[in-house]
Write a structure and sequence with these properties.
By secondary structure, the chain is mainly beta. It contains 3 helices and 15 strands. The chain has one domain: Exo-inulinase, domain 1 (Jelly Rolls, Sandwich), CATH 2.60.120.560. A hairpin with a 2-residue loop joins strand 11 and strand 12.
Length: about 210
């Protein structure tokens, strides 16, 4: 058993260069492949995706039509106004205005960008340290990466690892990726270079090395 395990690992390393590359999931022209939920305003400007607070009473979401379960998501975001929070949801389901799933937080202070929150569930599952909040750059482009494999979630901000969390409930979750603009007003975020790499069986093995 031990020999087979390391044989699989060796094959994963040797063939890692043959795996599928990441691909853009926002085309910079229209919302093909996406669906709007809730009350935020979503529009495209200079080829970038823009989300800002709306006039309604609920948070707003721009969600993929396709489920992404084991994946690596990379994007850039520019926080123009952050009087409230935003975030990137994963393995998420929408039923009317009800949202169930998990979020990698985007926020200037408090719980901080990269923390993991469960919507309509247990709340905060993992929060970044106060020191790690310094990685967030207000009024500048920030690079974010989210990797989800089974029940393990890792987040990075501007190249720094923020959190790694393993959770049985996340392991059983399925659903879409979605950007959030939190209700309450005062939020405007610009996104660009949104790319997803769906992880095949080989890359899932390689994830642990």
């Amino acid at each position: 058993m031990r020999l087979s395990y390391f044989l699989i690992a060796a094959i994963a390393v040797l063939l890692s260069g043959c795996t599928v590359k990441d691909k853009p999931i926002f085309n910079g022209v229209d919302f093909s492949g996406w669906q709007i939920h809730g009350d935020a305003k979503w529009y495209i400007e200079d080829g970038n995706l823009v989300g800002e607070s709306g006039d309604g009473e609920s948070s707003g979401y721009l969600a993929t039509l396709k489920d992404y379960n084991d994946f690596e998501l990379q994007l850039e975001f520019f926080p123009v106004e952050m009087k409230n929070s935003s975030g990137v949801f994963f393995r998420t389901k929408f039923v009317g205005k009800e949202v169930s799933g998990w979020k990698a937080e985007i926020a200037e202070t408090e719980h901080g960008t990269g923390s993991i929150f469960e919507q309509n569930g247990r709340g905060w599952l993992e929060q970044i340290s106060e020191q790690d909040e310094e990685a967030f750059k207000m009024g500048q482009w920030n690079r974010m990466k989210i990797k989800v494999v089974g029940g393990t979630v890792s987040t990075w901000l501007n190249g720094d690892l923020m959190v790694t969390l393993s959770d049985e409930k996340i392991a059983s979750g399925v659903g879409v990726v979605a950007f959030q603009i939190h209700k309450g007003g005062g939020v405007k975020i610009i996104w660009r270079n949104v790319r997803v790499k769906e992880l095949d069986k080989l890359e899932k093995v390689n994830h642990f090395f």
